Amino acid sequence: MNLPNDHIVKSYDEEQHRLVAEIVRMGEMSVAQLIAALDVIERRDEKAARRIVANDEAIDMLEQQISHDVMRLALRGPMARDLREILAGLRIPADIERIGDYAANVAKRSIALVAMPPMPQVQGLRALGRLAAQQVQRALVAYRDNDAEAALALRQDDARLDAQYTALFRELLTYMMEDPRNITPCTHLLFMAKNLERIGDHATNIAENVWFLVHGDAPLPPREKRDETSTVDHA
Amino acid sequence: MNLPNDHIVKSYDEEQHRLVAEIVRMGEMSVAQLIAALDVIERRDEKAARRIVANDEAIDMLEQQISHDVMRLALRGPMARDLREILAGLRIPADIERIGDYAANVAKRSIALVAMPPMPQVQGLRALGRLAAQQVQRALVAYRDNDAEAALALRQDDARLDAQYTALFRELLTYMMEDPRNITPCTHLLFMAKNLERIGDHATNIAENVWFLVHGDAPLPPREKRDETSTVDHA
């Protein structure tokens, strides 16, 4: 790819558009990974799970590529032009990259579950995962459309995901207490649930970056508290 | 702070040095938070734990500040000058910010533990935490000194932290199986251990950014595998 291509250099705006589209595409890859991960838990399909883990590499490489392109564009643009666009263009892919990691970890843990008896909480876990996938989707749309209101709304809804996570967390603890043989599989489900809750947090981060893109450093409205499992002192 | 200060604008190099020092300072704050968090687990001191959680805000704000300053500097510098320095200057603070979050979460969970009977595995957890703190310290020194060899060495040593995490993880599972009353406190310790293992991963990320600073996109040597608890299928 060493062809001279200066004569086909895109305008700053065109390149900025292309990058936003690339970031959204990257985000969709991470959502697809998450949905595939939720699917293999149900199907107990080790080969598919390994494929998801391997696919995470593509997202990681895309993040590297995008951050380089964003920086190159930044260095080309007029000084104060869009610090915000540039920062968002670096931060959002970093969040997406983490979402991809969590999705891959869910798939990886599902491999360990294949050897264990089916757990009734898997349904709750999948519901949590679908909600997390929805939150990421909404964040990507808000980013694409530069829609601060939509970003704010999904940020508020993170509380729902947290509540669902907390309920599942308590259910898993109870199930572990009923029978020690449940402890190992439940521990995997606990970490998988935690991964999904973290994906929600990254969707919230993306939303906050969209707010920042639109409103600059104007303070965000307060919102409901996060999950409370860190302070659970009973089962 | 609206004084005209153009006449005291620092040179690009001076500003770059100041930013590296700021990033190292930010890293040291996160290490201090981690050490304080390990300390409150031992002392079972709820007030101190809450203070650590509140302090995390300062690290978050510093990351915002640093990323703005790095970008402003980037937009000032000559074109291709140092894409690498700039990217590292944005990525390393993001890793440090996450380390601060994990330290705060360890402190938060220690609050829940105060109400529970003391657990023998707390010593192992603290040892794991000290190793994680060491890894972060080494990463900061490698960054400050631009030392790719030191970065590589600490990256290799992440396998030790992973091994220690895996051992503690198994120990906690066994302890849960012995008595259902151990399940709730052990779950907190499991998540705290996971946080510490993740801190190690972020130290590794910092190390990889130091490698990238020195060697550009030259591939990193292969290294030992990460923790294996995602695939534990027995206790």
Polypeptide structure, described:
2 copies of one chain form a homodimer. Chain A is mostly helical and 235 residues long. Chain A has a single domain (10-231), classed as Phosphate transport system protein phou homolog 2, domain 2 (Methane Monooxygenase Hydroxylase, Chain G, domain 1). Chain A is 78% helix and 0% strand. Chain A contains 6 helices and no strands. In chain A, helix 1 (12-43) runs antiparallel to helix 2 (46-76), helix 1 (12-43) runs parallel beside helix 3 (83-114) and helix 4 packs antiparallel against helix 5. The longest helix of chain A is centred in the last third of the chain and has 33 residues, at 183-215. The radius of gyration of chain A is 20 Å and the shape is globular. Chain A binds chain B through residues 67-68, 71-72, 74-77, 79-80, 83, 86-87, 90-91, 94, 105, 108-109, 111-112, 115-116, 173, 176-177, 180, 183-184, 187-188, 190-191, 194, 230-235, and chain B through 67-68, 71-72, 74-77, 79-80, 83, 86-87, 90-91, 94, 105, 108-109, 111-112, 115-116, 173, 176-178, 180, 183-184, 187-188, 190-191, 194, 230-235. Chains A, B: One of its GO terms (cellular component) is cytoplasm. Chains A, B: Plays a role in the regulation of phosphate uptake. Chains A, B: It is found in: Cytoplasm.
